[in-house]
């Protein structure tokens, strides 16, 4: 696509063509992502409704089609939030109060720049892609801290401190889990990490690194403040937590940040441990006429794997009770962190000794 666009825009200066192509790629990634974020809220209410033998949203239709009853609910929610007033509390720092939601959402969107959707489908195929991901995802906590402090509310500040401590704790476990992946793959480039899974289902890192996969995904649930780790929204103690003073679109941006982070964690889980766009089926099936393209590698496998892990996020919320805060911190510091350190040592030994089939020749 890049070559086609370059040829069509050849009459423009080369630097301008490069900027336009980059902007177009950003739009191609961000617009569907925001649509997915909006409809993930509908999927959550529908999935949990089915699990609890309820209907979920079923009133607001889309385009007047009876079959799509409920599909217009995210649009109605967006219109409602855009029409509500943003109230800045007395004594609040107005600039920080309004910029905090942007700081929370920005990294969740910017991280997609290095996520590989396919063999040649990456906005920025940089060698240090994993470091870029770790650096950006760690910035989201600043939005939460700023929101709690700038609100001039003790409830918001307590919620921000609780949420920040939780996020920082599980960031460490997530980082160590990804160190195990880059040690096994021998690269920080996300595309190269996916290619290291080549060879079929038995070569995916979810098997030799299964404990790290569990720790990474559970830590991702905790980092996004999702149930059963959603103590930042403990209604009985701190009302709604760090965003208790927010309303309208300012609150909606925090809401979008949470769901955008859910999609990002699910996508990275697919890339790091489940082969990204690679197919779990034997390579010979890709030669079958007509349906071979669906059975072989492609973006559809990446989307399917990401959707499965997103379903797990929703499943957890409908299944598990909320942890106490001391249990959450104990799990991160006393369980996950030691396990990841031990597994990094074991993986390093496996790579050095070239234990087949996963680490031979690394």
Describe the structure.
The protein is an all-alpha fold. 63% of the residues lie in helices and 0% in strands. It is built from 14 helices and no strands. α2 packs across α11, α2 packs parallel to α13 and α7 packs antiparallel against α9. The longest helix has 38 residues. The chain is globular and about 60 Å long.
List keywords for this structure.
14 helices; 362 residues; mainly alpha; 0% strand
Task: Provide a brief overview of the structure.
By secondary structure, the chain is an all-alpha fold. It has 14 helices and no strands. Helix 2 (14-51) packs parallel to helix 13 (299-319), helix 7 (154-185) runs antiparallel to helix 9 (210-223) and helix 9 (210-223) runs antiparallel to helix 14.
Structural class: mainly alpha
The proportion of residues forming helix, as a percent range, comes to 55-70%
Low-confidence stretches: none
Dominant shape: globular
> How many strand units?
0
Instruction: Output the number of helix runs.
Output: 14
Question: What's the SSE blueprint?
Answer:
Blueprint lengths: L1 H7 L5 H38 L21 H11 L10 H17 L18 H9 L2 H11 L3 H32 L4 H6 L14 H14 L11 H4 L9 H26 L18 H4 L3 H21 L5 H28 L10
Helix pairs in contact: 2-3, 2-11, 2-13, 3-11, 4-6, 4-11, 6-7, 7-9, 7-14, 9-11, 9-14, 11-13
């Amino acid at each position: 696509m890049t070559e086609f666009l370059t040829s069509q825009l050849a009459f423009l200066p080369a630097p301008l063509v490069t900027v336009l192509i980059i902007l177009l790629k950003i739009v191609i990634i961000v617009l569907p992502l925001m649509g997915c974020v909006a409809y993930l809220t509908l999927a959550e209410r529908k999935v949990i409704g089915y699990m609890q033998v309820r209907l979920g949203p079923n009133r607001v239709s889309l385009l007047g089609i009876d079959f799509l009853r409920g599909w217009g609910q995210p649009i109605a929610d967006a219109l409602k939030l855009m029409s509500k007033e943003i109230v800045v509390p007395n004594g609040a720092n107005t600039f920080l109060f309004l910029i905090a939601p942007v700081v929370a959402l920005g990294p969740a969107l910017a991280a997609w720049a290095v996520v590989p959707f396919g063999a040649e489908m990456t906005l920025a195929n940089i060698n240090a892609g994993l470091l870029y991901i770790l650096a950006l995802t760690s910035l989201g906590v600043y939005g939460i801290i700023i929101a709690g402090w700038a609100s001039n509310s003790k409830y918001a500040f307590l919620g921000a401190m609780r949420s920040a401590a939780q996020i920082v704790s599980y960031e460490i476990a997530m980082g160590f889990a990804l160190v195990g992946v880059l040690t096994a793959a021998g690269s920080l480039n996300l595309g190269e990490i996916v290619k290291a899974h080549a060879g079929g289902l038995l070569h995916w890192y979810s098997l030799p690194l299964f404990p790290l996969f569990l720790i990474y995904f559970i830590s991702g649930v905790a980092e996004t403040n999702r149930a059963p780790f959603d103590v930042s929204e403990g209604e009985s103690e701190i009302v709604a937590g760090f965003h208790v003073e927010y309303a309208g679109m300012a609150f909606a941006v925090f809401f979008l940040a949470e769901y955008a982070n859910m999609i990002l964690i699910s996508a990275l889980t697919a890339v790091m441990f489940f082969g990204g766009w690679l197919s779990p089926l034997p390579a010979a099936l890709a030669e079958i006429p007509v349906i071979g393209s669906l059975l072989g590698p492609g973006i559809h496998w990446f989307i399917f794997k990401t959707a499965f892990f997103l379903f797990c996020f929703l499943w957890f919320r409908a299944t598990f009770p909320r942890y106490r805060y001391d249990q959450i911190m104990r799990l991160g510091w006393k369980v996950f962190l030691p396990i990841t350190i031990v597994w990094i040592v074991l993986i390093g030994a496996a790579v050095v000794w070239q234990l087949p089939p996963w680490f031979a020749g690394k």
